[in-house]
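Let us work through a complete example step by step.
Step 1: write down the sequence.
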Amino acid sequence: MNKVSLIIKREYLTRVKKKSFIIMTILGPLLMAGIMVVPIWLSMQKKEMQNIEVIDESGFFGSNENIIKGSETMSFDYRIDSASGKTESLKIATADFYDSNYDAILWIPNNIFSGGKAIKIFYKKQLGIVSEEYIGNTIGKVMYHAILNHNKIDLNLVKAAEENSQIKVITEKLEATGKSKKTNTGLFMAIGLGGGVLIYMFIFLYGVQVMRGVMEEKTSRIVEVILSSVKPFQLMMGKIIGVALVGLTQFLLWVILTMTLYSAATVTILKNIDLKQIQQKEQVIKVGADLDYMNMKKMDKPNIVTEVWNDFKSIDIMTIFLCFLFYFLAGYLMYSAMFAAVGSAVDNEADTQQFMLPITIPLIFSFVIAQTVIQNPESSLAFWFSMIPLTSPVIMMVRLPFGVPAWELALSMGLLVLGFIFTTWLAARIYRTGILMYGKKVSWKELGKWLFYKG
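Step 2: predict the structure and record it as tokens.
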């Protein structure tokens, strides 16, 4: 056991001292914290004002009742020909465009209410999709209410109908005891899929590190010196556990540093930012301008950010985190044992392809099937693939946020441990022979023989 601990210590210290490990440990949290902080910070920055000239040939939108309202980033100027008192023509506006201080020209055709459903925007610089959607939605909203008003339809009645017809679906899980618990399917899907993707990535990343480490020691003949002091199984286990501790260290550092950076950002960069204000801005972009000229009462919509946060706090995140660590470590140990066996059987990385494919197919398949499982986490398909050791690390992580019976979780964990023991036994028998085999192309038939060699 002392020899195995020495190998683990060597593998661990060798890798954590590498520049690549240090750089990725620092860059990872910076990127993850940036993904959370930067979009919020950018959304609250003062935007550059865009001046838009409106050429309204219909003559409808220039009146005080139907005027297109500006926003924090756009202002609309209705140009009137001083000689005729009518809207300036598009020909004159485009001819003088580059001599004016306008950023764009909004042209509304005279047949906008009789089949002309398209408006045109001429610009010097691209306005952006948000600005285009704002203009289109605002004009559409004004026209919608103008048509209703023209046909003498009570606008307040229409507004009330719109408000009352927007139904919110609330889901609650009813336990056998009679107690119910509110759930958020979208949030559960995000957490489950995110956990599954992380396990998928970590198993591949660190499993390949084990395989390459074995190949390097084999091709450099260092392994011959090492095996004079330790058994092949001890060497393989020391290498696998050492790399596992490296992966676990990096993951925990990512979590700690990411939360530290995010907490620091909330009291510095984001201290004056109101998340509710961001959500309100998003709603304005979706529905168009504030049509207060109709004296209609706005809908009081709940703060989506607050709702998601409250739902997130109701999740047993500690259980999910501990299960994540278990499935990450157990899944990694099982797959890395097979990766180590492949590394011991070949002399160069080009020869690994024929052996890597059968190993990686279950892992890739579990990632693909996760897209279906997340739609129905309690189906028979989801159950069986969360029990099979080769696919359970990813599939069970997808199911966990939705709630998994304790007996299913215990059975899945037990089968995964048994799967790890069995694959490690198989890998060890291949490893003990392959690690000292040089200059020979190994086939599947040859690997089968190695499993039954005595000694």
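Step 3: interpret the result. The longest strand covers residues 50-56.
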